[in-house]
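Why should sequence recovery work at all? Because a backbone constrains its sequence more than one might expect. Tight turns favour small or flexible residues, buried strands favour hydrophobic ones, and helices have their own preferences. The token representation captures these environments compactly. In the example below, the structure is given first.
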């Protein structure tokens, strides 16, 4: 019997606009300001809510929270 190393996946918390559709087996991506950021391949879509999306990829768990427009407007005004 071989010993298996159990490796916990890291959690990535980010703010941005998830670009839909999200498909299992493909990379997901989200917009953060002027940048597009890709994840690795999606294994499971855990939850899609109004304010956030939770995903499991091959190496990470992602929580991508929707950036509030009021907060973004305040940063631009400052």
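From this structural description, the recovered sequence reads:
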């Amino acid at each position: 019997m071989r010993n298996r190393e159990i490796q916990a996946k890291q959690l990535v918390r980010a703010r941005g606009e998830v670009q839909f559709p999200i498909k299992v087996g493909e990379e997901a991506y989200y917009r953060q300001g002027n940048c597009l950021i890709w994840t690795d391949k999606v294994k499971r879509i855990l939850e899609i809510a109004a304010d956030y999306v939770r995903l499991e990829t091959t190496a990470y768990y992602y929580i991508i929270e929707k950036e509030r427009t009021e907060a973004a407007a305040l940063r631009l005004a400052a």
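A few observations help interpret the result. The mean pLDDT is 86.
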